[in-house]
Amino acid sequence: MFAAIKQDWSLRPWWMNLIFYFCVYMTFIYMPFDLFWKPVELDSEIWFGFTLTGWWAKATEPLHWLIYGAGAYGFWKMKSWMWPWAAVYTAQVVIAMFVWNLDHPRGGGVIAGLVAAAVFAVPMIALWRARPTFQAVA
């Protein structure tokens, strides 16, 4: 079993493995909990930095689930279509981190938004530059 995990780990750079396992976690643990067990009144989803709550959040959860599932599969098999789409989705997260900090009452304002966006810009740039990694395995 450890040999299989080691072989799988060697398919991608270490940072991409972290993103892959995050997608696996979201696909198989968090999103099913969020969709099927979390009460509607506690539900929230963030899209481009804007928070949807209640039934609007619940209605968009399957789209998030699909995105994470596609990411898990794409990183698992190192599919060539992951470039540029993983970077494009991560760019949406960069925008969302900035906008959320400006728009949400719990947001920290411009400086916090810039810091959060900068943190998520690192994997976005790495994914954008990873085109050869996806093509080499495919």
Layout of strands and helices, then pairs:
Layout: H1 2-9, H2 14-36, E1 44-47, E2 50-53, H3 54-77, H4 82-103, H5 109-128, H6 131-137
Antiparallel strand pairs: 1-2
Distance separating the two termini? 24 Å
Largest pleated sheet: 2 strands, antiparallel
Number of strands: 2
Biggest sheet, strands in spatial order?
Answer: 1-2
Q: Which radius of gyration do the C-alpha atoms yield?
A: 16 Å
Low-confidence stretches: none
Number of domains: 1
Mean pLDDT: 95
Element pattern in H and E:
HHEEHHHH
Tally the helices.
6
| Overall morphology | globular
Helix and strand content put the structural class at mainly alpha
Q: β content, as a range?
A: 5-15%
Q: Residue share in helices?
A: over 70%
What do these coordinates show?
75% of the residues lie in helices and 6% in strands. It is mainly alpha-helical. The chain has one domain. The protein has a two-stranded antiparallel ribbon with strand order 1-2. The longest helix is centred in the middle third of the chain and has 24 residues, at 54-77. It is globular and about 45 Å long. The model has no long low-confidence stretch (mean pLDDT 95).
